[in-house]
């Protein structure tokens, strides 16, 4: 008898029944797949940076306690959906089974990285093998389910798997940057020394061209050093992204007419107004960070009288996986930095 589920996974939602799996409080994480699902043997979770930061703070930076929080979340919700930040992450693993009703170009045994959030992915964990706080990666033994609508990428053969995972986790950021930055633009990347920030700096520099300006903002000395090593920023501001007025003054010294595009990649809250005030009227703010309060952004822009377009940090845009991986292939300095951090 055919067992065809909803292509978007609503058949897995338990609380409330019939809802989409991402906003659901709990989903069915039994690993008996439906005809249009894929079963994956999971090896590594790449936890969203904002989520990992929150769990680390809750656990007092104790890796064992972080693992306990993850196991508890998955046991209660059927997925790695942080109840505080609302975010998840992604995973790498090997395809274990493909439902008979699914038309796909992969086969059992293929190694893949999922490109949909763990906050909607049915997940069952047997144990946690290792926690890697510096990369937000967690080695596990377990299984997960991909819905018919779930996007994924085969792991590239020319780089280590965990390096590819780190890049694919934030693939939407450089791909969206490539779409929205135009020649001659002045671009501000907030959190430019982080994982998504460095990829965005690479794309911003390439797209803005010789007539454009690329400004990077970050606070830790290590992040600023990475920006300097990368060499993709024309100007670097070392400052606190939660201090909107002080950052604005520094941006004005560099770009009197402010920025055409501001890209927010930081994993801390309270940076919405820094992004908005640094952007010229008619410009665009791309909030890639999952720490963003879109209520604060919308009301803050209104209160400041700023006519800016604000783009929600959708982690997907067409061709995003290929764009992100290509960043490392075409920029050897970027690849060296990423390799030192993630492989």
Could you explain the architecture of this structure?
- By secondary structure, this protein is an alpha/beta fold.
- It folds into two domains: 10-155, no CATH class; 172-342, NAD(P)-binding Rossmann-like Domain (Rossmann fold, 3-Layer(aba) Sandwich).
- The chain contains eleven helices and 14 strands.
- A six-stranded antiparallel β-sheet has the order 6-7-3-4-5-8, sandwiched between helices. Strands 11-10-9-12-13-14 form a six-stranded parallel β-sheet, sandwiched between helices. A two-stranded antiparallel ribbon has the order 1-2.
- Helix 4 (172-180) runs parallel beside helix 5 (195-208) and helix 4 (172-180) packs across helix 10.
- The N and C termini lie far apart (45 Å).
- The mean pLDDT is 95.
């Amino acid at each position: 008898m055919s067992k065809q589920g909803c292509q978007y996974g609503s058949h897995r939602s338990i609380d409330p029944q019939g809802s989409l799996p991402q906003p659901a409080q709990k989903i069915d994480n039994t690993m008996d797949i439906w005809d249009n699902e894929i079963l994956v043997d999971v090896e590594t979770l790449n936890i969203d940076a904002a989520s990992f930061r929150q769990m680390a703070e809750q656990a007092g930076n104790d890796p064992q306690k972080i693992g306990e929080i993850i196991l508890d979340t998955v046991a209660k919700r059927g997925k790695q959906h942080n109840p505080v930040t609302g975010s998840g992450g992604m995973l790498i693993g090997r395809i274990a089974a493909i439902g008979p009703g699914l038309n796909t170009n992969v086969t059992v045994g293929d190694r893949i990285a999922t490109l949909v959030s763990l906050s909607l992915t049915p997940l069952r964990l047997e144990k946690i093998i290792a926690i890697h706080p510096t990369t937000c990666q967690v080695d596990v033994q377990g299984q997960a389910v991909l819905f018919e609508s779930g996007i994924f990428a085969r792991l590239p053969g020319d780089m280590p798997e965990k390096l590819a995972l780190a890049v694919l986790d934030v693939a939407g950021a450089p791909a969206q940057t490539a779409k929205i930055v135009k020649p001659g633009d002045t671009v501000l990347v907030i959190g430019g020394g982080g994982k998504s920030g460095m990829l965005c700096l690479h794309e911003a520099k390439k797209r803005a061209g010789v007539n454009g300006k690329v400004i990077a903002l970050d606070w830790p000395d290590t992040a600023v050093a990475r920006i300097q090593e990368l060499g993709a920023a024309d100007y670097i501001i070392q400052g606190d992204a939660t201090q909107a007025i002080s950052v604005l003054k520094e941006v004005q010294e560099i770009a009197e007419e402010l920025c055409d595009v501001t890209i927010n990649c930081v994993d801390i809250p309270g940076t919405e107004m820094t992004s908005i005030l640094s952007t010229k009227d008619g410009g665009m703010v791309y909030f890639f960070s999952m720490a963003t309060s879109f209520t604060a952004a919308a009301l803050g822009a209104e209160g400041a009288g700023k006519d800016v377009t604000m783009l929600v940090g959708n982690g997907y845009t067409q061709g995003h996986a290929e764009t992100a991986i290509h960043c490392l292939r075409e920029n050897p300095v970027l690849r060296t930095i990423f390799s030192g951090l993630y492989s």
